[in-house]
Design goal:
Blueprint: E1 3-11, H1 15-28, E2 32-38, E3 45-55, E4 66-71, H2 74-80, E5 84-92, E6 101-103, H3 106-113, H4 120-132, H5 136-146, H6 151-161, E7 179-182, H7 183-194, E8 198-201, H8 208-216, H9 218-221, E9 224-227, H10 231-243, E10 248-252, H11 254-259, H12 261-270, E11 274-280, H13 297-302, E12 310-313, H14 318-335, E13 338-344, H15 345-349, E14 351-354, H16 413-437, E15 441-444, E16 449-454, H17 458-464, E17 471-476, E18 478-480, H18 484-492, E19 497-501, H19 507-516, E20 521-524, H20 533-545
Parallel strand pairs: 1-4, 4-5, 5-6, 8-9, 8-10, 10-11, 11-13, 12-13, 16-17, 16-19, 19-20
Antiparallel strand pairs: 1-3, 2-3, 7-14, 12-18, 15-17
Helix pairs in contact: 1-5, 3-6, 4-6, 5-6, 7-8, 7-14, 17-20
């Protein structure tokens, strides 16, 4: 059974830390947990909330119908009161007129412990653990891992002891050591595994957490994290570092990615590897900085002038993010292309639970050759795969103008034609390797009807398949190169096909139309919030009822 817990309050009240402590505790007890984070563009005040969902079975999304709630203020009750189940248990120190309320006098406990106001979270977490019938020592262990103030331990004990009610949630039979990880950290660890030397960024939500994560581990892994004055400097610095032999990456969101556009074309012409982490948020323009959307797919595919190949990969959860980041680096460095890891706020800031991660099959490789006699930077090789070396070993002439094989500027029509063909042909070789070596798309379920989507919508769709048993789900992982044979095959053998996207224009649907020539039924959401499984079930049934 799946349970959903709301933690609501004002920005600055420690909601994120409280939800992480709660979820980590549940994972230690053997549950699968998923956390969703909802917050506005302010440092203090306003209304923020997190949802912690957990189950004995794997889950990949949250629901907005709550079994339990920790409310740090009255406003949270007023905003969410219609989302509480009839038997929901509400834990709060606020004066709320609701028979479901378990009120804890946190101020008395804070005064007794001579503690700071923020220990209220630990008090209420202790009370919730007692209500759930779960062991206090597990909660205390998680508190110790996240908070240094030891008075939080006493606060949790006080909260636990002050409650009599118990619901007794059954503990999983098998605990084990599960992996609890967010999408951002998974991308960072994938980059580190490949051999990341440098990360360049200018802060922009929701890409900024990757800068924070890599900065926090830079000494452990020997990484340099560099914040520059703007995104133009960021992307050009990365291209320069990679020219010199480094393995580097840049991170940004929509507006910053727009500023990088000219440099994407520079990469296309110079064929210097470039890896971009693009974490989407609600746009256009500044949009809603702290909310999610999947509306930058076309920008990822087409930003930049001129014809040049690129890789666009859209992981759907943290596990995908780890492995697909490694693949993005591999392809960028082997083929001298732009690789874009297309994420979004929902994927970046949500936490997922997995039983394990297998050892990646790919190892880090700079693809630098040392036999550099008569080296040609842009040699047209038999398989069109470029040769790469570094300036300390040979004269490496990189050129943003059209050039010959040595890198010297040319306007000769025959050479221009050959170099254009060289750049495009290497993508065909890349595409062949991707088809043979990597998972471009994945099918879940066995129904006769089909749902297609990409990115962070994956979790809610998978969870909805427990109810939508007559549907299966095709997750598209590679947007470029596009798995058109797989997509066409799955659509053609389906009775009905629906595409689900977090944008207003069905951008993946347009890509499918371009590659396969089939127009699909659409379910779109574009209010900045991710899909939940309830919404998908409702909308799929509504659409099917019209058939």
């Amino acid at each position: 059974m799946k349970f959903n817990i709301l933690i609501g309050g004002k920005a600055g009240q420690g909601i994120e830390t409280a939800s992480k402590i709660l979820a980590k505790s549940l994972v230690k007890l053997g549950f699968y947990a998923f956390t969703y984070r909802d917050y506005g563009s302010f440092i203090t005040g306003g209304h923020n909330f997190n949802v912690v969902s957990f189950s004995e079975k794997p889950i990949y999304s949250h629901d907005m119908i709550f079994d339990f709630a920790i409310l740090l203020d009255v406003e949270s009750y007023e905003i969410h009161k219609n989302e509480f189940k009839e038997n929901c248990i509400i834990v709060s120190d606020s004066e709320i007129e609701d028979k479901r309320l378990v009120r804890i006098d946190s101020q008395e406990i804070i005064k007794k412990l001579n503690a700071k106001p923020l220990v209220k979270n630990s008090i209420l977490l202790g009370s919730l653990f007692k209500i759930l019938g779960l062991p206090l020592d597990t909660l205390i262990e998680s508190i110790k891992s996240e908070i240094t103030d030891e008075k939080n331990i006493g606060a949790a004990k006080e909260g636990f002891d002050r409650v009599q009610i118990k619901t007794k949630v059954s503990l999983p039979m098998k605990r084990g050591n599960k992996i609890f990880i967010d999408g951002t950290s998974a991308v960072g660890l994938g980059a580190i595994y490949y051999g990341l030397d440098m990360y360049f960024a200018y802060p922009m939500t929701p890409a900024t957490p990757l800068l924070h994560f890599l900065s926090s581990v830079r000494e452990k892994y020997g990484i340099k994290t560099i914040q520059l004055e703007n995104e133009i400097a960021v992307v050009n610095a990365s291209i320069g570092a990679n020219y010199a032999g480094a393995i580097s990456m840049v991170g940004t969101s929509g507006g910053g990615f727009d500023l990088m556009t000219e440099a994407l074309s520079l990469q296309g012409m110079t064929e210097i590897p470039l890896v971009v982490y693009l974490a989407q948020r609600a746009g256009p323009s500044t949009g809603i900085p702290t909310y999610t959307m999947q509306a930058d797919l076309m920008a990822a595919l087409y930003n930049g002038h001129g014809d040049f190949p690129r890789v666009v990969i859209a992981p759907g959860d943290a596990k995908d993010a780890f492995y697909k980041t490694i693949e993005a680096f591999y392809l960028a460095y082997k083929y001298g292309v732009l690789s874009i890891i297309l994420s979004d706020k929902h994927l970046a800031e949500s936490y997922f639970t997995f039983d394990d991660f297998e050892e990646p099959k790919i190892k880090g490789n700079r693809f630098i050759i040392e036999d550099v006699k008569d080296f040609k930077t842009y040699e047209i090789t038999k398989d069109f795969v470029p040769k790469r070396t570094v300036p300390e070993l040979a004269m490496v002439k990189a050129n943003s103008y059209e050039h010959d094989e040595f890198g010297f500027t040319t306007e000769d029509k025959e050479i221009t034609k050959k170099m254009q063909e060289k750049r495009m042909m290497k993508f065909k070789v890349l595409e062949k390797e991707v088809k043979e070596k990597f998972e471009m798309a994945r099918v879940f379920g066995k129904g006769e009807n089909l749902i297609i989507s990409f990115g962070s919508t994956k979790g809610a769709i998978i969870d909805s398949l427990d109810i939508l048993k007559n549907f299966r789900f095709l997750q598209i992982l590679y947007i470029s190169p596009f798995p058109k044979e797989i997509v066409k095959k799955e659509i053609e053998k389906s009775k009905n096909t629906i595409i689900i996207e977090n944008n207003a224009s069905a951008q993946l649907g347009k890509v499918i139309m371009q590659n396969v020539g089939i127009e699909l039924n659409e379910i779109l959401k574009y209010d900045g919030r991710p899909f939940t499984s309830e919404e998908i079930i409702f909308n799929v049934r509504k659409l099917m009822s019209k058939k």
